[in-house]
Amino acid sequence: MKINNYSIKKSIKYLKNNECIGIPTETVYGLAGNAYSDEAIDKIYRLKKRPKRNPLIVHYFDINSLKKDCIINRYFLKLFNKFCPGPLTFILKLKKNSLISKKITNNKNSLAVRFPKHPVTRTLIKKINFPLAAPSANISQGISPVTKQDVIDEFGKKLKYVLEGGRSKIGIESTIINLIGKPKIIRLGGIEVKELEKVLKLNLIYKKKIDLNFPGQNKLHYSPGIPIELNRKSPKKNSAYILINKKKNIRSKNFFYLSKNCNLKEAAQNLYKLLRKIKKKKYKLIEIEKIPDKGFGLAINDRLKRASYK
Ligand code: TXA
Ligand code: MG
Q: Nearest to residue 78, comparing CAs of 184, 205, 186, 198?
């Protein structure tokens, strides 16, 4: 992707003034601000209407810049060397003398960190001397945005600027692994757990049940604001029906395909985009065909389960 120097400069100017802006990443768009500035972090929480107890992910360019703020370990290095930059977020111990705003962590001593791969955002982060806090650029509990227009639809004029980066390639958020103590998966996402297990040579724990004691694990999440019903063999009359396999001999304007041949990676890429499209068409109910609980299907089902919570 061609980098537009003018828009990078403009973004830097906003960030240096403690403003927040939308930024593209390979997973979803983020709402970014200077992670060392209380003022910028306040703005992120306010815009997102995010509860203060739910901490933010901080985005770095490389290990050198991370080392000022966090303590790294051998698991981190193994995973970093294989998957970064990329769709993997690590929970690490925060250093006592780190400059990270206390508002990001809610005064806790852990930090979620990520190294985004998107070339536009990498160019931006390389040019500034502070890391970027950036939760997904959606109002709390809603669907993450995967294009610049999605971000504009979320915040309108309240957000001063969104950096263009095309459509997010992965389409769902990063996988989160907690590396404090025994490695544990906190969120399924852009990298399959079995890939992480291969590198760590460990079986990783992932609790499917939502742990409400963990920040950000609210029951209703990733919601398009329309009721969702899962595992539907066929749709009711006027609902939007989401499918993962081509239905032969049936065509309907109410049918929406995540994939036509059960390609789960493609389905993850299309998930949020499709939910937004259906919402714009003003459907009152979404019904979804059963999605296989394997590979990226695990992450998709995790999102859909929370989105359908009543
Ligand atoms: O792909 C992504 O990770 C995107 C892009 C923009 O980087 N970001 C993203 O951020 O999904 P957010 O804030 O929407 O989700 C981050 C999750 C939240 O559920 C939060 O509770 C959790 O990470 N989290 C952040 N810091 C944490 C910490 N110190 N310990 C445990 N969980 C943490
Ligand atoms: Mg989010």
A: 198
